[in-house]
Amino acid sequence: MGANTQSMIFTIYGDYIRHYGNKIWIGSLIRLLKEFGHNEQGVRVAVSRMVKQGWLQSERQGTKSYYFLTPQGVERIDEAAKRIFKFEQHEWDGKWRILMYKIPEDQRQIRDGLRKELLWSGFGSFSNSCWISPNNLEKELETLIKKYGIHDYVDFFEAIYKSPKENHTLVEKSWPLEEIEEKYESFISTYSRQFIVHQSVIARGEMTDAECFVERTKLVHEYRKFLFVDPGLPRELLPSKWSGSHAMLLFSQYYKLLAEPASRFFEAVFEQDNDLRRKEKTYDANDHPLIIKDSSE
Predict the structure, then answer these.
(1) List of domains in the chain
(2) By the 8 A CB rule, do 273 and 64 touch?
(3) pLDDT tens digit string along 208-250?
(4) How many Å apart are CA 74 and CA 56, to the nearest integer?
């Protein structure tokens, strides 16, 4: 339950709290997580772990403890928000970005951390120490090289594939597209049925704001998992029938169906012990959420 609780907290920060001054009383957070069956002790343990990991900071106001995202946490949310748009099919400039590295064995931990970050950024593993991407990820890569202090161990190229084989061959070697497609099809199968049912139930006024809050949060929680697996390839390199496009449309429509009643429930809980005036003036519940990646998955 621990990692799952932590992961759900990340989702709620990304989709709600970030828009309301980035700070919440622990009691309010416990109240929100109770809707998903998480108990008080589990929430407190998860929050404590997130503080140790550098994602959250605490602040005392009288007898109450409030928690807010650290600069590291805010940066991760902002990064994830940009990456939502990787699901939009985009034009390709025909160039491949190639990263090659030779990190010493005694720095294996750095190498393993780098690999995880490369996957998250959308790189594919062409071979053990060679990673490729058709997207312009130069800035992201510069950040990674600086973060891990590996400037002397890496080489970065921009190239055009000159083999008589098609570019799709590189894609097949570097990303498990069939597995990703299956995950999208499973998401569509599950959530298209739920979407139709909830459309009908909401139209009849038979779904509470609390239930909408739970369903919207679960929807975001599931959809954000694609940030871990979908490299965001340009349309020229995708299969002709790519379920990722259908999943994105379904997510968008379903999210908008649940958005306003879910936000009403969140605000009803939030305003009791937090400052609702800190809500962003430009925030619209119908906008796409900020889907945050965390290190617990």
Answers:
(1) 1-89+176-297 (1.10.10.10), 96-159 (3.30.70.240)
(2) yes
(3) 999 999 999 999 889 988 888 899 899 899 988 899 989 989 9
(4) 10
Tokens of 139: 């800035």
Label residue 62 left, alpha or beta by phi (over 0 means left) and psi (-120 to 50 means alpha).
left
In whole angstroms, give the CA distance from residue 131 to residue 137: 12
Q: Could you read off the pLDDT of 36-62 as tens digits, one per residue? A: 999 999 999 999 999 999 999 999 999
Q: Hey, what are 67's tokens? A: 């928690």
CB 19, CB 280: distance < 8 Å: yes
Nearest to 213 by CA among 170, 169, 270, 136: 270
Task: Give the integer Cα–Cα distance in Å for 35 and 46.
Answer: 16
What is the rounded distance in angstroms from the CA atom of residue 123 to the CA atom of residue 117?
9
Structure tokens at 166: 């098609």
Cα–Cα distance between 121 and 265 in angstroms, integer?
34
Residues 6+ apart with CB under 8 A from 242: 89, 181
CB 247 within 8 A of CB 187: yes
SS3 percent helix, strand, coil of the chain, rounded to 5, is: 60, 10, 30
| Neighbour count for residue 286 (Cβ, 10 Å) | 12
Q: What's the CA gap between 259 and 3, in Å, rounded?
A: 26
Q: How many CB atoms lie within 10 A of CB 19?
A: 21
Tokens matching residue 186 = 């499973």
| Cβ count near 228 (within 10 Å) | 12
pTM above 0.90, yes or no: no
The half-sphere exposure of 43 on its side-chain side, counting CA atoms within 13 A, is 20
For residue 280, what are the CA distances in angstroms to 19, 212, 283, 284? 6, 22, 5, 9
